[in-house]
Amino acid sequence: MTGTLLNVATVLIGSGLGTLLGQRLPDKVRQTVLQGLGLVTLVAGLSMALQTSNILIVMGSVLLGGILGEWWGIEERLEALGNALQQRLRLGNGSKLAEGFVTASLIFCVGPMTIIGSIRDGLVGDYSLLAIKSLLDGFAALALASSLGIGVMLSAVTVLVYQGGLSLLASLAQVAMSQAMVTEMTATGGTIIMGIGLILLDIKRIRVANLLPGIFIAPLIVALLTTLGIPIAP
Question: Which domain holds residue 221?
Answer without folding.
Answer: 2-227
